[in-house]
Amino acid sequence: MNPSLQLMAPFSGPLLSLPQVPDPVFAGLMMGDGLAIEPLSSTLLAPCDGVISQLARTHHALTLTAANGAEILLHIGIDTVQLGGAGFTALVAQGDRVRQGQALIEVDLDVVARRAASLISMLVIANGEHYQLDERASGLAQAGQTPLLRLHALPAATTTYANELTSESHGRATVRHAGGLHARPAALVQNAARPFAAQVQVAFKGHSVNAKSMVALMTLGVAEEDDVEVLAQGSDAAAAAAAVIAALQTRSQGAHATAQPVARPTVAAGMLSGVCAAPGLAIAPVLRLDSREPEPAQWADDPLPEARWLQQALQQLRGRIGQSVNDALRRGAQAQSEIFSAHLALLDDPELLQACQQGIASGLTAGFAFRQAISTQCQLLAALGNPLLAERIADLRDLQRQLLQILLGEQSQPLQLSAPVILVAEDLAPSQLTSLPQDKVAGMITAAGGATAHVAILARALGIPALVACGPSALQLRTGQQVLLDASQGWCHPAPDERSLSEAAGRIAALAQRRQHMQACANAAAVTLDGVSIEVAVNVANADEARDGLRHGADSVGLTRTEFLFIDRQQAPDAAEQQQAYQAVLDAMPERPVIIRTLDVGGDKELPYLQLPAETNPALGLRGIRSGFADPALLDMQLNALLAVQPLSRLRILLPMISEVDELLRVRQRLELLAGQLGLSERPQLGVMIEVPAAALLADQLARHADFLSIGTNDLTQYTLAMDRCNATLASRMDALHPALLRLIAMTVEGARQHGKWVGVCGALASDPLAVPVLVGLGVTELSVSPGLVPEIKSRIRVLDFAACQREARAMQLLSSAHEVRQRAQHCWPAA
């Protein structure tokens, strides 16, 4: 075994660093570290001795496993899998032993250059976490002669993998996801399989599909509690199989609630009935959105430009959706970011892309081939008889419409709405709803769809009353027709009389008057009937949101999410840019304390310049402060920026994902050192987020060294109940009012009380009016919510009796479920 390995250039041509590659997957080092090259020679040579442990079916890529266990991925071109093998001739087979300099793949550079996005080819160390990469070459390389880089095996990687090069692993899994393998669980399984070189198959009822294909997994029709087979083949087969089995069996849920389908209510004759997807009441004229499907030509004169046009259109659409994801993340719109991330996964589905390439190869135009591939997948999903999976058809149709518009050069003109309207359509796509001005959408009615469709989830997140699955009668409504929509009760009156309109208008006015009254009192303190003061703060991402919080009467900023400064860019913001952003938040909240959380990335928030290893379960990996410790220079830069704001007396720094006292002490010591170097006599407060059960259990120890504790109920619920936030299927069961969570919150408050420290809640539970009396009773003295909720939460606190809240909170910890807690809370405080 040779722990040090020299890799030679596989092609002749100019060398590039991976961040220069025009592909976010490689540029972000998601597959691993290495180098790239623009090939001027046409034969891919082995960079070292080894075994071909994986050869792509389309021969555009292979993995070479060296004697020291290094897995070297050689990928020719960008998105060349879509060429279906055209332009590539494999000169070796999987399992072959090869020598350094041996010819592996012959490339027709002319064919690939004309049909692929780029010829830039990558050499990536897929398991690079076990190796140190040194002596990187630059400039012009000569195939087989120029030393490219040297690998040094770290201690954990010194075991030879010779016996595992062609290993196989199999097992069984019981699918635990509510609703089975629909979109989000399928994406979870897909993401679990992707980091591995092994080929992984999931089999069900005699049908086997690629575990790295989201659509293929959905077409299996696997329901909750169904048993499936998992087979992995490749150098890391055992790990790949274990990861996929774990993903199949892990109960998971997303950050946004999923309404349960309900039966249609009985309504009066002439009324339109449907399923409530988002509650609410609205009076407004109808605006019909009748979608027109772009019509592509069927046959092409030449398949080569069609393949290129498809690739370009896909890249453009990926960029557009990716921007939507980042915009949603900046606004803290979790539901939108997750739904559009699922759309990105659908666009990258290998089965869908392969079907497109086959269609183009048979003579179809790019648009017709894509529409045909989408139609096939929709038919498969519809044939399964699973309503939850059938609702994913709308997502596929949405992608089809957008891509065809790009291919045919059609410009989608945004609607200009001068007054609120109620949207009416056969069905609505997420991209359509989010493209409209939200203050002008009073409600929505669809003939098709369901309460678990993505557009329904968005409507709930945006607070738009929505009635779905109304049937063909919904399409009898016409633009300009005034209707009365009571989505909460599941009906729409298409021709309301004056009395009905007057009653509904009175209800709407009463709600508006109540909101106005709460806003008028918002600047006053929130004090219970028996004199206990509760600070009501706001969660923000920037100075604009802080100013919005101030307008709504916020007492302070309870959480500033700094990760929104760091996303959607190729390098981190420098200390000056950060300091300016942090100072702006403090300036937006004069005379009030501001909590700023250090960078919380990793898990579901990845940065291309933060070189974190691929993880099978990111939620349990390098998240929060752990990622800061993984890149101490980045953490130091942020701490320096925070120490530069004025006045430091109003600044409170919050550390995410702390699980032990040593982590807190490490940051405090670093903060002291940096403050000393800057000659500062004043220090900001330093607090800890309670997001993992370990932190709650150690609250008394943490409070000895922290200035305050802030509970992140979203993650604390996830880790306590073992329910992943990245899936929506268990939303109704992922409830932070679970008695176990109440006990952890009580334990946190008691631990802090021993050292005279205060405890706040910045997670979603603080925004739940029904939960407010419970949190107050548990001893929480600060609640941080979204700006618009500040008046309501303050109003809620002012009618509470603290002593009664304490008694009920103690009793609720003895109940057996979140459902029981909610029932009791509703009985005790019915106005919530």
UniProtKB/TrEMBL annotation:
GO cellular component: cytoplasm
One Pfam family of this chain: PEP-utilizers_C
PROSITE patterns cross-referenced by the UniProt entry: PEP_ENZYMES_2, PTS_EIIA_TYPE_1, PTS_EIIA_TYPE_1_HIS, PTS_HPR_DOM, PTS_HPR_HIS
HPr domain sequence ranges: 168-256
EC number of this enzyme: 2.7.3.9
EC class (word): transferase
Keywords noted in UniProt: Cytoplasm, Kinase, Magnesium, Metal-binding, Phosphotransferase system, Pyruvate, Sugar transport, Transferase, Transport
Biological-process GO terms, alphabetical: phosphoenolpyruvate-dependent sugar phosphotransferase system
Record field: catalytic activity: L-histidyl-[protein] + phosphoenolpyruvate = N(pros)-phospho-L-histidyl-[protein] + pyruvate
Entry cofactors: Mg(2+)
InterPro entries attached to this UniProt entry: Dup_hybrid_motif, HPr-like, HPr-like_sf, PEP-util_enz_mobile_dom, PEP-utilizing_PTS_enzyme, PEP_util_C, PEP_util_CS, Phosphohistidine_dom_sf
Any one GO MF annotation of this record: phosphoenolpyruvate-protein phosphotransferase activity
Compartments reported by the entry: Cytoplasm
Domain PTS EIIA type-1: 23-127
Family: Belongs to the PEP-utilizing enzyme family.
Stated name of the protein: phosphoenolpyruvate--protein phosphotransferase
